[in-house]
Design brief:
Elements: E1 5-7, H1 9-25, H2 30-54, E2 60-65, E3 70-71, E4 76-84, E5 90-96, E6 109-113, E7 118-125, E8 131-135, E9 138-143, E10 149-155, E11 159-164, H3 167-176, E12 198-204, H4 216-222, E13 226-231, E14 237-243, E15 251-252, E16 255-256, H5 257-274, E17 278-284, E18 288-295, H6 300-309, H7 320-330, E19 336-340, H8 346-362, E20 364-370, H9 373-379, H10 386-411, E21 415-419, H11 424-438
Parallel strand pairs: 3-11, 14-17, 14-19, 19-20, 20-21
Antiparallel strand pairs: 1-10, 2-4, 4-7, 5-6, 5-9, 8-11, 9-10, 12-13, 15-16, 17-18
Length: 441
């Protein structure tokens, strides 16, 4: 029973008050008797509270309900379900033993259970790293109306929940890229410019449509201009290339650049498969990591998801020559390649530019790298002294160098996306839709 007994905050407040009264009674004698009687009454209340808590078995059932897996960097809902099997009213403090990755030491939920009542509570967790997250027991501290002492109930609900790349984002963008409902802010609805081979339907002519596709017979029947619409070409290979080198270790809002790239790569792969294209994956640093050939077979997305889940950053420089040979051996047909990496200087770009140009000759390469949001804040900070002036100038130069890198890649015929980490997925999806609409692959 003693292992279940805990003292409440209210108990310590009362003890502190009694101690203060005894100290004051040393100077004001008539308070001594009052304080003694108050102490006796306090002891009686503690005894009464203890009898209430421990006189019978507390019958409370509880369970923790989580999703089978958590999504990286998203708010994942956790539900606690409680049921009172007794005829007493309980005040509760619930302490869930959260995985150590969250480093949350002050987690507590307060609630109450009516006689034979049920209570459903929930909270959200936002994991910032992939891997296995182990939940411990559910600790329930019951109190009476007095609330001087507490009784601890341990419900053994240990569970391991894996944290995968963001499946929530993947499902969200899968929904938003459906042309009929694509109304999310930022998603662009692209008009098809090129031609494909599969006829889809005849529709009303809209300004901007290719006049060469006007169906004159249908226009005569409807007395309105009608145009032939064709489906996008299908089964085109789409590869996600992810740099795992030390330059991708840089954190933004708790996530590394590689984790942002992994989330975006999963979304692109899913959108490509929904568009009936083929999705593939290559990760690299000083050596090739995952290498999944582009396909649209059943289970392809699950294979990419499992592979991304196991990727780890490496403290080495990226070997782009090795990437070139990896692409050459794995990717046999012209494909769309999304390369997620980062460049901090023109020197870093110049070292790998010959390799990027060689890859771009055989495939459609899109280089995706990151703006430094922290530098933007520094460059816009108010200047108070000479040091602040130098800091602003250096930050502005670093930001401008990123733009010069993007321009240099464009001059070499390599398409680029220079984006903030938080906008990476949205910009990647828009680029994919643009490429499909323009018929560049």
């Amino acid at each position: 029973m003693l292992k279940q007994l805990y003292l409440s905050t209210r108990f310590f407040y009362a003890i502190t008050l009694l101690i203060v009264l005894f100290c004051v009674a040393f100077f004001v004698p008539f308070l001594f008797d009052i304080t003694v009687y108050a102490s006796i009454a306090f002891g009686a209340l503690i005894l009464l509270d203890g009898l209430w808590l421990f006189s019978q078995k507390i019958m409370i059932q509880g369970k923790r309900i989580t999703q089978p897996l958590f999504s990286l960097s998203d708010d994942n809902k956790v539900v606690i379900s409680l049921r009172n099997l007794s005829n007493r009213h309980w005040f509760l403090e619930i302490v869930d033993e959260l995985p150590e990755q969250f480093q949350i030491r002050n987690f507590k939920i307060t609630s109450a259970l009516k006689p034979y009542g049920n209570e459903v509570l929930h909270y959200h967790l936002r994991p910032l790293s992939r891997g296995e997250y182990h939940f411990g027991n559910l600790n329930i501290f019951t109190m009476s109306y007095l609330g001087l002492i507490r009784r601890r109930i341990i419900i053994p609900v240990q569970k391991m929940v894996p944290v995968y790349p963001s499946i929530i984002q993947m499902k969200k963008f899968e929904l938003y890229t459906i042309s009929k409902i694509a109304k999310i802010h930022g998603i662009k609805k692209m008009r098809r410019i090129g031609l494909s081979y599969e006829f889809e339907q005849i529709k009303n002519y809209v300004r901007g449509d290719d006049v060469r596709q006007i169906n004159w017979k249908a226009s005569g029947r409807h007395q309105n201009l009608m145009i032939n619409q064709f489906e996008d070409e299908r089964s085109q290979p789409i590869y996600t290339l992810i740099d795992k080198s030390r330059i991708m270790l840089m954190p933004f809002n708790g996530l590394s650049l590689m984790d942002y790239a992994i989330n975006a790569g999963l979304v692109i792969s899913n959108v490509a498969l929904q568009k009936r294209d083929k999705a593939g994956l290559i990760t690299f640093s000083d050596k090739i990591g995952a290498a999944i050939k582009a396909d649209n077979k059943h289970g392809q997305l699950q294979g990419i998801l499992n592979s991304l889940y196991n990727q780890k950053e490496r403290d080495f420089e990226a070997n782009y020559e090795l990437l070139y040979y990896g692409v050459k051996n794995l990717v046999k047909t012209r494909s769309l390649l999304f390369l997620y990496t980062n460049f901090e200087s023109m020197y870093g770009l110049q070292r790998v530019l010959p390799v990027l140009r060689s890859i771009n000759k055989q495939h459609l390469l899109i280089v995706v790298f990151f703006e430094n949001s922290e530098l933007e804040k520094i460059s816009q900070a108010p200047v108070k002294d000479l040091k602040g002036i130098y800091t602003n100038i250096l930050a502005a130069q670093a930001i401008n160098e990123k733009k010069i890198i993007a321009q240099e890649l464009n001059n070499m015929g390599i398409q680029t996306i220079l984006t903030k980490p938080e906008d990476l997925t949205l910009n990647s999806v828009n680029k994919y839709l643009e490429i499909k609409a323009r018929g560049l692959i």
